[in-house]
């Protein structure tokens, strides 16, 4: 099998995603029943982190161990990666000693260059532009609660960041709609909107209108990692882009609330919403584990049948 990477959400097509979601369901059931499943015995995952993480590190490291393999953590502080070793050289060396690599970094270009020089699959664990593993877990979570996401409407409230961009990509692949509302000046970049086509994406100046009748309301921090210098300005600019109980009422009582976490209660979401009955944020976080196990299985072994 040719090397398959997961650098952007649309690296997987609808058929591959359906397979991964099926496998996720089965792998999750085995895990919950304490059944051993070790298809990746002796395989090694290298995880490279240039930014902080709780969920991504935990879910990849625990996930690889639960599949019978092992995981090695590298960061820029303690490796040569932070001392100017070219990413192409790092990719050659790291991919000769491992079976799969997960990278969390800044520009998407860095992970693309790594992948171009890698002998093994490379997975995007978050870049400034995309967070495909997050949306894999989010869509699986949606399916678990409400069935297929096809034709449904997701309301994105807040910053047009990596998570938002990935929702827009996913909408194209899986045929659902995204209503985006950002403060002025923080809109989805036009070239990205063109890239994703216009069929599945609509922009709203009023966040309430974006949320009206939505099947899922979701948001993220006002300031993403790497943009901390803009923190004060963003707190002012994003003040009215908060998911609160009124917004969830406008969406409707069956609408779900999601947040990739970590969250700031009182900023992008109120405590009563994130801790309330429509919120599925803990399922969402847990499903990072199960979906990524299915993803690693697929990238390393292809379409395993149950
Ligand atoms: N949602 C997410 O990727 O969380 P971490 O930053 O903790 O990995
Ligand atoms: N948009 C956030 C997501 C964190 C998981 C960030 O990039 O910091």
Automatic annotation (TrEMBL):
InterPro entries: Asp/Orn_carbamoyltranf_P-bd, Asp/Orn_carbamoylTrfase, Asp/Orn_carbamoylTrfase_sf, Asp_carbamoyltransf_Asp/Orn-bd, Orn/put_carbamltrans, OTCase_ArgI. Residues 150-299 form the Aspartate/ornithine carbamoyltransferase Asp/Orn-binding domain. Residues 4-144 form the Aspartate/ornithine carbamoyltransferase carbamoyl-P binding domain. Keywords: Cytoplasm, Transferase. It catalyses: carbamoyl phosphate + L-ornithine = L-citrulline + phosphate + H(+). L-ornithine binds at residues 162, 220, 224-225. Its main location: cytoplasm. Pathway: Amino-acid biosynthesis; L-arginine biosynthesis; L-arginine from L-ornithine and carbamoyl phosphate: step 1/3. It is found in: Cytoplasm. It is an enzyme of class 2 (transferase). Its EC number is 2.1.3.3. It comes from the Bacteria. GO terms for molecular function: ornithine carbamoyltransferase activity. Carbamoyl phosphate binds at residues 53-56, 80, 104, 131-134, 260-261, 288. Reversibly catalyzes the transfer of the carbamoyl group from carbamoyl phosphate (CP) to the N(epsilon) atom of ornithine (ORN) to produce L-citrulline. Belongs to the aspartate/ornithine carbamoyltransferase superfamily. OTCase family. HAMAP family: OTCase (MF_01109). This is Ornithine carbamoyltransferase.
């Amino acid at each position: 099998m040719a090397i398959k990477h997961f650098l952007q959400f649309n690296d997987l097509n609808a058929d591959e995603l359906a397979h991964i979601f099926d496998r996720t369901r089965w792998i999750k059931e085995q895990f919950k029943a304490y059944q051993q499943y070790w298809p990746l015995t002796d395989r090694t995952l290298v995880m490279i982190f240039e930014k902080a993480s709780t969920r991504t590190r935990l879910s990849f490291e625990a996930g690889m161990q639960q599949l019978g393999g092992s995981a090695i953590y590298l960061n820029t502080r303690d490796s040569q990666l932070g001392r100017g070793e070219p990413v192409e050289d790092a990719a050659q060396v790291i991919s000769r000693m491992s079976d799969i690599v997960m990278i969390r970094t800044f520009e998407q270009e860095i992970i693309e260059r790594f992948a171009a020089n890698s002998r093994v699959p490379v997975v995007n664990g978050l870049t400034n532009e995309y967070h495909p593993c997050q949306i894999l877990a989010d869509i699986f979570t949606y399916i678990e609660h409400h069935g297929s996401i096809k034709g449904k409407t997701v309301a994105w409230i807040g910053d047009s960041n990596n998570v938002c961009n990935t929702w827009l990509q996913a909408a194209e692949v899986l045929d659902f709609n995204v209503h985006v509302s950002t403060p002025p000046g923080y809109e989805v970049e036009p070239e990205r909107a063109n890239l994703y086509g216009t069929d599945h994406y609509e922009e709203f100046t009023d966040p309430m209108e974006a949320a009206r009748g939505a099947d899922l309301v979701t948001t993220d921090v006002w300031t993403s990692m790497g943009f901390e210098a803009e923190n004060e300005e963003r707190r002012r600019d994003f003040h009215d882009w908060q998911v609160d109980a009124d917004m969830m009422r406008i969406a409707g009582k069956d609408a779900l609330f999601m947040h990739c976490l970590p969250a700031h209660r009182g900023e992008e979401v109120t405590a009563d919403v994130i801790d309330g009955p429509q919120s599925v944020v803990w399922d969402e976080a847990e499903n990072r584990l199960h979906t990524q196990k299915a993803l690693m299985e697929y990238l390393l072994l292809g379409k395993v049948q149950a």
